[in-house]
Write a structure and sequence with these properties.
Distance between the termini of chain B: 50 Å
Shape of chain B: globular
Shape of chain A: globular
Order of helices and strands of chain A: EEEHEHEHEHEHEHEHEHH
Number of domains of chain A: 1
Low-confidence stretches of chain A: none
Helix content of chain A: 25-40%
Structural class of chain A: alpha/beta
Radius of gyration of chain A: 20 Å
Strand order of the largest sheet of chain A: 5-4-3-10-9
Order of helices and strands of chain B: EEHEEE
Mean pLDDT of chain A: 95
Distance between the termini of chain A: 41 Å
Strand content of chain A: 15-25%
Strand order of the largest sheet of chain B: 2-1-5-3-4
CATH class of chain A: Alpha Beta
Number of helices of chain B: 1
Number of helices of chain A: 9
Mean pLDDT of chain B: 92
Largest sheet of chain B: 5 strands, mixed
CATH topology of chain A: TIM Barrel
CATH superfamily of chain A: Aldolase class I
Oligomer: heterodimer
Low-confidence stretches of chain B: none
Chain lengths: 257, 72
């Protein structure tokens, strides 16, 4: 297969790795990890300004939104109403329309609340947002999100921050087969091989936060993830051999002594 | 001269007191917040940042000022 440009809502991006900006020790470390990852999209959250500490560092002072695409998320939202309110505010900060919708259903497992997610996708799409949707790995729900106007389907590999890797490869493959939308694994990646497998399954990209930010060496892990995504993509495009239970000698028997 | 008739408002969940006819713009300036990095909600309605000089705060107003932080 020939490589195609990675496009979301008609906009092209160089890197297929999207990284989160949460959980780093400092904004400085976060900025270095982003650079090392090669990502040109980063997720960000909307929160109250700390009005009592006016000198507190701000994310935008470390990561320039003119150079890196900010993808505002709805982390911490449990209803469609909250999610829509949050993203309207995000849009107001700087005109962002490309957003990551994430409506959670329970605080323990952080699984997506899909009914509210679907409602939000419809509402936000009507308002002109380009909605990339964090969802479970259910092909039927993925189809409904697509019909509701989602610009990217982003199923979890495993619970957010769990580092468990891809738990349901079959469903991811089914979703891959049924959609032409960008398919991006979001949440649950633990190590570089997980990111590589996601790409080998035919996903268009991977979104990683905790696996980089909480690694012992986040900057090096960011590079490992970058290479894993590139490697997995090339492997997918190259067309793997058919698996076989029996051996097949690499060396010809012709001329054997 | 001490102004007696200060009004109470809520900013990001915290009570503040400002003088009557204090504008939303004056509040942002007072808090030293860069306008291009925030969004403002007044009583749950998003405010167009271009108009904040014309908005006078009233007793009991609830203001939310948000910005981007790290997130996944």
């Amino acid at each position: 297969m020939i490589e195609k440009k990675f496009k979301i809502a008609k906009k092209s991006f160089k890197s297929r790795l999207i990284v989160g900006t949460g959980k780093y020790k400092s904004f400085n470390e976060c900025a270095k990890a982003i650079k090392s990852s090669g990502a040109d999209i980063v997720t960000v959250a909307v929160r109250r300004v700390n009005i009592s500490d006016k000198n507190k560092a701000r994310l935008m002072d470390y990561i320039d939104p003119k150079k890196i695409t900010y993808l505002p998320n709805t982390a911490g939202c449990f209803t469609a109403e909250d999610a829509v309110r949050t993203l309207r505010l995000a849009r107001e900060i700087g005109g962002w329309k490309l957003v990551k919708l994430e409506v959670l259903g329970d605080k323990k497992n952080l699984f997506p609340e899909m009914i509210e997610t679907l409602k939000s996708t419809e509402l936000l799409t009507k308002e002109g947002f380009k909605v990339m949707v964090y969802c479970n790995d259910d092909p039927l729900m993925a189809k409904r999100l697509e019909n509701a106007g989602a610009v990217a389907i982003m199923p979890l590999a495993a619970p957010i921050g769990s580092g468990l890797g891809i738990q349901n490869k079959v469903n991811i493959k089914i979703i891959r087969k049924q959609t032409k939308l960008p398919l991006i694994i979001d949440a649950g990646i633990g190590e570089a091989s997980d990111a590589c497998v996601a790409m080998e399954l035919g996903c268009d990209g991977v979104l990683i936060n905790t696996a980089i930010a909480k690694a012992k060496n986040p900057i090096q892990m960011a590079e490992a993830m970058k290479l894993a995504v590139i490697s997995g993509r090339k492997s997918f495009l190259s067309g793997r051999i058919n698996p076989n239970l029996f051996g097949s000698a690499s060396t010809s028997n012709k001329g054997i002594i | 001269m001490k102004i007696k008739n200060k009004i109470k408002i809520i900013v990001n969940g915290k009570q503040m007191q400002v003088i009557p006819k204090f504008s939303l713009k004056s509040l942002v300036v007072k808090l030293k917040i860069p306008l291009n990095k925030i969004a403002i909600e007044l009583n749950k309605k998003i405010i167009d940042k271009k108009n904040i000089s014309n908005i006078q705060l009233k007793k009991g107003d609830k203001i939310e000022i948000v910005h981007f932080i790290g997130g996944g």
